[in-house]
Amino acid sequence: MGKLVSSFLAFTFLFATCVAAASGVGKATICSTAVEVHSVTPLLFAAEKDGNVTFIFGTRHVGFSLENFPHYVGNLFSSSDSLVTENNASMLEGFVCTVKTLASMCRLSGPPLSETLSPAAYEKLVSRFKEKLGLGDGLLKRLTPFGASTIMDLDLKSKKSGVYLEKEMEKKARKLGMKISGLETSEIVGPLISAFTPQILEAELLTELPLSAPGAFERGDFEAYNQVVRNQEQVIPSIANISLTQRNISWTKQIVERHSLGGRMFIAVGAMHLAGEQGLVALLSAEGFRVTRVNEANHGDYLPKPAL
């Protein structure tokens, strides 16, 4: 989600970190503990075909640790041969936060958002930044519409804002000797950034339909995510098509190909990508996979069987 210097998630994570530092949120907050242990009902699915299983795990990239999920999530993750994320989170190691790397977020030319949004939309944006980031409109003068949309709902005042789940999973995967790879391609993310106009941001800000589902991730409320996807398709159809549908289709092709090679994959992507008629759950089902939600009662069915 100009030319891409890196991935969408790298932009999001690094920009959030930079903003937190600028807003006076210190290192203690950036590195602090996430929500309480085992407090999240996981959006975890098993996709089975041709005698092999691939796990699809819906995440919320920032603010949660593996400790926040029931033990069986970690058990199934550890039993897998490879970890696949939207992007390789390990690329964040040593990454330099500069204007060049944040070109899609930072406004390098043209009028500021205060001049391209209506007064009502800009006032709402300022309110969100104050509530979630503890900032006034100083930062907004430097943001693109894509940058503002990406971070306006991140709660950087929260004590759990610095926990990046996929990065934690990659560290564990490396210790376990798992193969690590990503799904994202610049052919999808580049057009997303280019398509994000002030008009799209304004539609996001002024709609009465909820474009996010507070608390749904913690509850594991898949239907709430389905409804949010439907709302996004109605309010911002062009962005929903690029940011969700086209990426999901691209990822599904890759998942099908990789699954056919054998081995147990554990795929961790944003929970929104699992939902909707063009979500990964539906698309993999259409490809002939038997997709089952994994829970406390049935997770044992997906653990490797001991050798006789």
Shape: elongated
Q: Describe the largest sheet.
A: 6 strands, mixed
Identify low-pLDDT runs: 1-11, 13-35, 89-101
SS class? alpha/beta
Strand content: 5-15%
Quote the distance from N terminus to C terminus: 48 Å
Strand order of the largest sheet: 4-3-5-2-1-6
- As an assembly, this protein is single chain
Report the C-alpha radius of gyration, rounded: 19 Å
Number of strands: 6
Mean pLDDT: 81
Q: Can you give the helix content as a percent range?
A: 40-55%
Total helical segments = 13
Helix/strand order: HHEEHEHHHHEHHHHHEHE
Count of the domains: 1
Name the features.
single chain, 308 residues, alpha/beta, six-stranded mixed sheet, 13 helices, 6 strands, 11% strand, elongated, disordered N terminus
Fold and architecture overview:
With 308 residues, the protein is α/β, with parallel strands linked by helices. It is 43% helix and 11% strand. It has 13 helices and six strands. Strands 4-3-5-2-1-6 form a six-stranded mixed sheet, sandwiched between helices.
Short description:
The protein is built from 13 helices and six strands.
Question: Which SSEs are present, and which pair or pack?
Answer:
Blueprint: H1 8-22, H2 27-30, E1 43-49, E2 52-59, H3 71-78, E3 82-85, H4 113-116, H5 119-133, H6 145-151, H7 165-176, E4 179-182, H8 186-195, H9 198-206, H10 216-219, H11 222-235, H12 237-260, E5 265-270, H13 280-286, E6 290-293
Parallel strand pairs: 2-5, 3-4, 3-5
Antiparallel strand pairs: 1-2, 1-6
